[in-house]
Amino acid sequence: MLAKWPKPNKTSVSANQLRHFAAKVCQPPKATVMALPETIDIVVNDKNLNIVAGSSVTDLLKTLDIRTKAIAVEINHNVIPGDQHAATTINANDRLEVVTLVGGG
Amino acid sequence: MTQEKANSPTPTTAQSEDLPLTIGTHVLSSRLILGSGKYKSFEMMQESVAASGTQCITIAVRREKLYDGTGRNILDYIDCQRYTLLPNTAGCYDAATAVRCALMGREILKALENPGADWVKLEVLGDSRSLLPDPIESLKATEQLVKHGLQVLCYTSDDPIIARRLKDAGAAAVMPAGSPIGSGLGVANPNNLKIILADLKREQKNYPVILDAGVGTASDAAIAMELGADGVLLNSAVARAGDPIKMAVAMKLAVEAGRLARLSGRITKSRYGSASSPEIGVISDRE
Fold first, then answer.
1. What's the CATH number where B177 sits?
2. How many structural domains does chain A have?
3. pLDDT by position in tens, chain B (length 287)
4. Residues of B with catalytic annotation?
5. Considering only CA atoms, which of B183, B234, B271 is closest in space to residue B54?
6. Is the ipTM beyond the 0.95 threshold?
7. Is residue B109 in some structural domain?
């Protein structure tokens, strides 16, 4: 909360009052400083992405908001079976393909 | 015969006696396989597929559009309980990419619990203008995918030798092109198709040969069936027709008509005429 200005009906403000006010205003916020999570660079469908280190394939699909079941994921040219998405951790510089079905002949 | 009886569609003996189309472990009630691409809308695709009477729909594998989770998916318009999906490797130009594409298609269909998870329409193109297949890469990919346990339905040119090589490599079906994909030119070389059919079925009568690509209109599909093809796979001819739903019905009828004609045994061609009505007793003074 911001400190209150000295009351306006006072004709003068003492140096002490000003110091007191300045000390309150300039105090750093009391928010907890969190350490930023470590991130890694990967490539998904030819696009560069930066994700939280230690993410699994399932985590990535959540981050990308991909909800359809009709998805296949390949990491560095190896298909990851659907039942291994949760247990497969993505490493830095991995190249992924995330594909789905579209109309075709 | 009553009027009612005369108008009711009666399945012929030939139709009821015909075996269903069997490709590997898959048994299909219709000999028409329809593609799901190039329709003006998903709704149009859905209605055309239903009208065609097919049981099998081809579908392509493509990169997911990232950050677009709200977009409509074609699968919202395909009943995966009713249809067997046939994933393709369309757009691949080398064996390695086609194999990756096929294996990813398998994963998707497994997730959908669709019976099509164990087969693939292999398509490895050799030229982006003609869209004709690369026979060497197609053969390599067939060999690799067979090792991966997939039933491979291989799109190929109408060359009889490569068709035989694909069959020998373990393809579950060979699918020669009538003419380039989407060209609508029909069966450009009926003689090659006849040679392929005779050759691949010589020792295995029921080995499936499917005409894939080039069909422009109903008669093209009928011709392929009359020549002895086991089925027809088409997409553009329906999807790009003025009225896709009507054309889907036309294709269904054409495939059935061509099949029945094939089973019936056509008359031999003759240079001269042969009258259908008795030649004696004509009320004519003509000698």
1. 3.20.20.70
2. 1
3. 444 444 544 555 545 578 999 999 999 999 999 999 999 999 999 999 999 999 999 999 999 986 555 567 899 999 999 999 999 999 999 999 999 999 999 999 999 999 999 999 999 999 999 999 999 999 999 999 999 999 999 999 999 999 999 999 999 999 999 999 999 999 999 999 999 999 999 999 999 999 999 999 999 999 999 999 999 999 999 999 999 999 999 999 999 999 999 999 999 999 999 999 998 999 987 77
4. 121
5. B234
6. no
7. yes
- Cα B131-B136-B172 angle, rounded to 5 deg: 85
Whether chain B has a CB inside 8 Å of the CB on A58: the answer is no
Tokens found for residue B80: 């995966």
**Residue B234 exposed, middle or buried by CB count within 10 Å (0-12, 13-18, 19+):** buried
Nearest CA of chain B to the CA of A50: how many Å?
Answer: 14
Residue type (1 letter), A86: A
The residue range of the domain holding B227 is: 19-61+74-263
The C-alpha atoms of residue B157 and residue B166 are separated, in whole angstroms, by 11
User: Does A57 reside within a domain?
Assistant: yes
Which of A90, A62, A54, A87 minimizes the C-alpha distance to A74?
A: A90
A86 CB neighbours in chain B (<8 A) are none
Domain annotation covers residue A92: yes
Separation CA B17–CA B264 (nearest Å):
12
| C-alpha distance from A91 to closest chain B C-alpha (Å) | 19
